[in-house]
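Hi everyone, sorry if this is the wrong subforum. Our group has a chain we'd like a structural model of before ordering constructs, and none of us has done structure prediction before. Sequence below.
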Amino acid sequence: MRARVLAVNWHDQQPVYSLDFLDGQTLVTAGGDKEVRIWQVTQLPSGLPEIKYLDTLTSHAKAVNCVRFSPSGGLLACGGDGGELSIWKLEQPAAQDSQTGLQWRRGCVLRGHAEDVQDIAWAPDSSALVSASVENSCIVWDVEAGKGRVRLEGHKHFVQGVAWHPGGSSIVSLSCDRTARVWGPKSDILSSIRHAAVSWDCKPAKQFLFHDETLSSFFRRPAWAPDGSFLLMPAGIHQRSRAASPVNAALAFCDGSWTSPVFHMPAVKPVVAARFSPVLYRRRPHHSSDNAAFQQPYRMLFALATLDSVAIYDTQMVMPLAFLGSLHLDRITDLAWSTDGQLLAVSSYDGFCSIAAFAPGELGEPMPLEELPPHLQLCMAAACKARPAAAAKAEMAAAQMLPTPATPSASALPEPSPGGMH
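Answer:
Right subforum, don't worry. Here is the predicted structure as tokens:
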């Protein structure tokens, strides 16, 4: 693995709040400069990642807090301050305009939020979208109609994270009111998660599961496993005994079992985001599985971002595979994996993004589609068909020699030394 802070002027030295991959090379970022930018990421012969600017999507009047490509790859949702929420469409350029390459056109503006949109999650079929807002609520949108379907209300403070189950069966919202809510297909509340039942000194008690509003981040971005078997919740806390001090953690819940997390991953600083690699890997036969919670016939990888570091985990092992620290000068805001699982991008309030690049086979051998369970074959096959169509369009832009934004002085950059990796 090689990690690097990329020394470009990502968003006019403003904080970078979010990022996402369209495919294995095309990266979108958003930040405090009110713009959404498209980039091409490649790996040098040394294995280090390199970035090239492609395009800017300008439409927002205020900071953009979250960007997410649809599972189909043809749509991009952008949410920001003041309730701004817009959809961009990827279009095939006309023959006479083929030299212009990748083209994104603004499709519609979704109007319904009056306050800042902090997170976004797509439905698995790309037909709908859910947005989280500091209005203490979420809205589920019909993307084709450009209208809100229903408002999800009940939280008593800012909603800072949302996740849509890969099977479409539920939506989870996470708020700084110290609760997570699970919403069913008819937008009814399936569960409200606030406490875990514990037994300290043989006396039943309740333990808070999440940080309150004093957490120094506006983002609590949860993530579902690609197979929908479990959910990772950031901003968690865990207290082993009544006498022990609470520790920061990411909490894992099995789908449909919300009374208590199945396990937790401790962290020095609060966890603000979780993101799964979209690739399923073969299990390592020479590694004994010491994580009893996961006995699937494949391995899944995920990254957890705290305020100042990133840890990469494997469901076959309890300890992290890798740790990225000392890469940024300010708080981390978001994570994104490329669709081939070879790149992991990290954004930060310091105005820069870092990327960890993995050599082929370094993370393991991807599972062939025919060896997956039948229900996963259908899900993964749909994704494989949708993404290459978008990727083919993106490749047209890769050969362009578009200007790169001005690079700030080296003194403004965090030191991108290998010492940040452990």
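For your construct planning: The chain has one domain: 2-398. The longest strand covers residues 271-281.
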